[in-house]
Each structure stands twice: as structure tokens, then as C-alpha cells.
Predict the 3D structure of the following.
Amino acid sequence: MSKNDFTTKGRGMWRKNIFMNFYWILFFSMMNLVDDGALAAESGKGATESRIGTPLSNEYKKLDRKRLEALNVKLREAMALYYDRSYRLALPLLQEIADEVDTIDVLFWLGKTAYKTNRPTLAIEKFNEILERDPSLLAVRVELATAYLQTGDLASAKKELQVLLDSEAPESLNNSAREMIARIDRTDKRWFTSLRASVGTVYDDNINVGPADNNITLPDGGGTLILPGRLRGWLVESKVNGDVLYDFGERDGFVWRSRLNFFHDQYLDSPRGDFNFTRIDVNSGIEYLTREFRAKLPFGFVNQRFADEELTQGFYTAPNIEISLNDNLEILLGYRYDYEHFVADGTDSQDNSTHRVTLGPRTRFDFGGAIHIATLLGGYTVREASAERFSFDEWSIAPTYFARFQTGTEIFLQGRYQNRGYDSPALLFQEDREDNRYTATAVISQTFYDHFFVSASYTYIRNDSKTPLFDYEKNLVGVNMGVNFRF
Amino acid sequence: MNIKHQTGLIIVLLLSGGVCWGKLPERPTIESYVTTDKPLNVSSSDSLGRIELANGDVQLLVLNTRNVYKGLFEMPVARGDVIKTSANSRCRVVTATGDVIHLGPDTLLGLNEKNGVSMLHLWQGQLMVYGMPMLQGREQSLKIHTPEGRVELKTGKINLKVGVEGVKLSVYEHTAKWIDNQGKQKKLARGQIIQVTGESRQVGLLPGGAEVSDGLLVSPESSIVRDGIKAFREKDFKKAETLFSQTQSAYPYNPAAAYHLGVMKLEQNDLKNAIRQWQRYVKIEPESERAKEVKRNLTLLVSQNLKEEAKRILANEAQISDATPTPNSIAVHPLLNKGQEKYRYVGKGLTALVISDLAKIPNLKVLERQKIQKLLDEIKLSRSGLSDKEVALRSGRLLRAEKLILGDYKIGKKKGLK
């Protein structure tokens, strides 16, 4: 993962949360609203609760006194459980009572108990029974809407709330209904877009990736390579990340995501301008999302420019899955295939196909007012290039830690170790090339006024290679600022 | 003052409620009561309810006799009586109309009644009150008087505190009405709280977790269970059984009581009641780790118990067979397979379906298939030469069922199930 991935990850959190949990978030927020609604209703005209004492069913009159008292005892037992939130135990008792005497009150409590125990179909049935008898019980429509939401039937929920708004309901009930409709509308939204752009400056202490030793003796009397030494300097780094996501509407279902990543490093003076680098990555693909399982299948195109000339064109696909073992632990499994074609003259020997597999756990937990996410990914990569000296087998391991605090502060830390064995020696060398690369990245970012952020980053890279030409160290220190919008 | 003004004053007084229901009476002089262990007799007409459960130092001050009673369990309460809890003590009272009142520590509560309306007088301490509904509707509110005013509650759940900082009323379910001593009313809905100190009145929203913490402080359930578990661990089974039985009587869905009573019944080799308690426990806490273990043990116990029951019935067959069948009972004999042997397993499912359908009929007692099968096995072992139908009839009679369902089935290749 590059430091660029940090912004991607940070940016992706909101959407992931929305798409993993938005139905549940909506449902539970509605539950709160309904409680508020019931609260308002209970104190207002047309509320079921205020009708206690005037049950809209005379069926109890058919019962003999003894039976009625026995059922009253059962009702008290059920309501004690209901008041103490033991809905699972209250449900069968209320069902038994309702089978014999279905007063409005009993049906109402049964309906509420049903959706509190995740049985929205039963709740809908009971609330509809109440409304068939007395459509003026407007508070029941709020409960019915909530039960519809639990089934994911947003349209029916909205319809019930609209009926309420078209009636002469108390203002407090109207307010609850309006707020619920607004939340449904937000959830009913199908298109989501986000844009994050930043610009900053970075100091690079090894622009040309110069080796540790400037004088390199070539084998078998091949002479000595005298290198110009490290170039150091400032660059301006620009990034733009855009996402467009279409939700197909099911709680557990498909979304289509398209993404653009633009990255440009502009060195401020010549000859350092020869190292200007641009990368454009566009991908699009379908994703299947549930609370326990996520699968993604993106297809992408990459174009890279170096020294202001086109360097490569490539495409890739990266199917991957995430499986939640519990609320705090996930397993990530990914595969990526890349094909890369080098455009510049004389570079086609570097054309390559790359296969990469990654596997590892990710844990997420809340602590100290912050969300913490830690990941450990192991990877294996095989690259087949036109020239063997560019082909390699690599294994890697990368621990990552990310934290987001309520203050809008984000911290990202990553370490990575790669062991890369090339299929044949580098040009001019005879010994097989093997590199051990160590990378450490640290980023801290602060968001302010919701849409703006500043961040500071540091990256250290050390490449220990058996081939002295590729033995180098590099430090990058930067600050940048940017904007972040979601639509 | 002219007549017009006088009439107006009377109307205002009546509307204010102050005249109708009065204010909190003087605090009783506890010192004038004498501790006794004489039996307490309360006529049903005087009874306002009963103390269902008490934990710690709880006293009942009886107005008529000026006696004080302690060690309260299922103790009747009459008009004018006062209940006093000391520090770390709790108590549960059920009124004649089914309302439930939990008294927290250091509480002084008087019970009264006027024109059929229950009235409570809370001089100090804390209550959790459950106003219970009735199928035929509830016309009268429960009225609770405090030094600052009174609460009226029909149905719902409230918490009421009276202390040096005044009166605090929290509404956890439905609605409640607060009427202060000047007659000002405020209707409170679920999730609201009002604090009244003299002239000052503040209404707000309940803080998160308040209901749980108030419940723990006021309800005797958790403290008596804690004492029961302690006695159980110290192997004082007599005390433990008493405490858990009392708990279960007041809180039929308490999981700890059901589980521990099951263990103790098993220790006493009372298989039937051990099974009953553990079945209850599994119903209350089906997902707990302990329930999984209990379920495994239950399977063994049920089988063992059935065998013993069958043996006992056979030993007394002569007397039992002539006894009057259990009214409205029906025994379902396992359906016999008349077709190919490979369809024998279907019989259990079909029988279960019949039992399941019959069980939905109110007032009809369906005797269990498992019980009948076990009995048949026993009969088969002890006698021979009887046809299956005769054996089944006899098993139904043995089980004292009024009616018996017999049947068979055949699954053919073309005609399906017959």
C-alpha cells in the first residue's frame, strides 16, 4: 500500500460505513425517532396510548369473569416483561392474549414487541389490523412505518408517513414524520459521489534513487561505473481522487463503483524536472455488500508518464473479498492481475504481466473516543517480463494501523518488508539480483470545517540489494492541504 | 365575597385536584408502633395488595393494631399501613389491581385507597412503579402523593424519588401526570424527567442508562438472587431454595432462580421438578452458554424420567386404568407405517404434525408422543401377544387420556402419501 492509499482508505470509510450499515443505522435511528414519535403521540391527540381505558374491541365482554381475570393476569405478566424490555419473553404471552381478545392496546403492544424482536411482518400485520379498525390512530402509522423500514420496504414506510402528514396530526407527530421521511430520502439516495483533492510540497533526498556508493565496480574487469550521486530537492505533489457509486437498493446487494486517482509530482528545477511523474488510474466494477461479506470486482486502466513523456499503459483487475468473522475481525483475501506495456522507445523489454495474491486479518475497535483499524497483509507476487532481468518472485508483509479520532484527526502508520528475487542478473552484472526493501510511512491528518484538511507525511525507503547499483536509501517529508466533498 | 366568586373558587379547587385527592398526610410516628410476631389477619375487603418479596430489613407498620412485622413474604397490606425499608433493603408490593411497586432503600411508603382508587404516600425514598393495563380498560389512575405534589399513572413505568433535593419523576414507559401542590399540571411522556423543589420545576430528557441503574437500585430481584447464589455456594441449600423460590414466585422469568432450583431439585433426586425448572431456564435464556449445557443434560433427564414414570404407571396399572380420564385430553399414538420400511422415519414427523395441530386447540391437553412411545416400549417389554392397536388403546388409558388418535400411513410410488 502506498501512502496514496491512506487517502483512499480514509475517504472510503464513510462510504463503507454507509453501505455496510446504512439500513441498520436507519432502522435504529428510526426506532429512536419512533420512540420520540410515540412519546409525542402519547401526549397528543389520536395516540393509541391515550386510548387506554377505551379499548376498541368489546370481545372481552364475551368472556366469563374468571377467564377475563386469567387473561388480565397474563396481560400483567406480559406487560411487566414489556416494560422491562424483555420483548422476546413478552411476545408469546401477548400473542396468546391477542388470540382471544384483540383489543387495540393488545394489538399495539404485540406489534411493538414484534418489531423489537425482529419480526416486522407480524408487526405490520397487527398495526394494519389496528388501522383497519380506526384509521385515525395516527401514532400507529409511525410504528407501521418503522416496521416497514425493518423489512427494507422504504416505499411503504414513506407512504404511511405521508398519510400521517396529510392528516391533522399533532405538530410533534408531524415533526417526527417529516424527520423520518427526510432520513428515508437520504437513504433512498442511489448515487453517491466524493471528491478529494490536495496539493503540497515534499522534500525528496534521493530524487534519482542514487545508490549508496557512487563508484560501482563492474564484474570481470568491466570497469567502474561513476554515478552522478544523489539529487535532492523539493517537489510539488498534487492528488485528485474521485468516486462515483451507484447503489442498486437492496440492503444486502450490489453497488457499482467507479474511481479516478490522479497523482502528479512536479520537480521545481531542471535537471530535476526529468523526474516529473504522473499517474492516472481509472477503475470501475461491481461490488456485493452484506454485513458479513464483501466482494469486489474492479477493472482498471493505468497510464503513467515520466519526464513529461508517456511511459506505460496498462490494465488490471483486482477481485477481492472481505469476510467478517465478528464485529471486530475480518479476513481479507485479494488477487490482482496487471498487464503493463512500456510505450517509450527501447523500453519494451520491461513489458510485463504481474499476479499478486494477498491475505490477512483486519481488526477494528473503538477505544478512547477513536476508531482503530489494524491490518496485517501478507502477499506473494510473480512478475513475468519480456526480459528475464525484470521478472521476479516477491513475498511481502505489511502491517498497517489507522486511527480516526472524534476531533477529526487521522493517523496512518505502515511498515512493509519485501523480498524480491529476480530471474536473472541486472544488466552489466553477473550475480543474481535479490532485493530486500524496507518501507515505513507515517501520516497525520487533521480535518477542519468538515471539508478541509491538512496533513504531514514521512516515508523512509531502504533497498538492500545484492547488486550495488540498486542499493539505496530514500527519505520523503511533506505537507499538503486539500478539500474533501461528498455529494 | 359574593356567590359568583365563591362558585368560581369551588370550581377552581375541584379542577385543581387538590380538594379531591388531598395532599401528603403527616409522616407517621413510627416510634408508636410495637414489633410483634402475632399472625396478621387482613380481611379481603380491607386488603390493598400484598408484599410479594422483601430483602433486608423491611418493616410493615399496621395501622389498626400499631404492630410492626418483619420477615415479610406474601404479607397482606391493608388501608393505612406503612412499609419502611432501611439502608440496603428492597421490597416488592403488588396492589389489588395488579400494579407493581418496587421500594428502594431508606423508603417510607404508605398505602391507602379512596373511592376504589389506590393511593400511595411517599414521604421519603425511591419507587419504581409499574402501572398495569386491563383488557376491559382502566378507568382510575394510581395516585402517588409526595411532599411537592402528586403523580397520576394509569399504565406505564415510572421512577419516583423523594429526597433532600426535592422530588424527581422519571417516565420510562407511556405517560404520567405530575400535579404540584399549587395544582399546576404537567403531562410527561416516555423519556422525560421532572425535578421539583419548592417553586422550582425543571423538565428534561432522561440520561442514558438511568432506567437500568434505577432498576438495580430499587428492585429486590438482583439483591435476593445475589443472596441466593451466596447461600448456594456456601452449600446452605435450604436457604438458597427458599430465596430462589421466593424470587421465582415474584419474578417468574428470573433465569438464576430457575437454573439453581433445577440443580437443587436434581440433588434431591426430584427429577420431575428438576426438568421443569431447567426447561423453564432454557426458555428464559435460550442463547446462553449455560443453556447449551443444560439442554444436553435435559435430554438425558427427560429420558430417564419417562422411563421411571412408565415403570411407576405399570406398577399401578390396575388402579390407574379405572380412574376417570383427564378431561379434554387426547393421546396421539405414533402413526404406523404400512408401506415400505424405508418410509418408517416419516411416521415421527407426521405424528408430530398431528400433535402440533391439536396443540393449537385451546383447552385440549395433548399427551406427548415421546411419553406414549416410552410407555409402549415398556409394555412391549413386559407383555407380549397384543396387537399394536390394543397396545395403543391401553397406553392411552394408562395415560388417562379421554380420547386416543390412532392411524397409519402408506407411501406409494404413484399415489404419494395416504
About this structure: Confidence is low (pLDDT under 50) at residues 1-20, 381-387 of chain B.
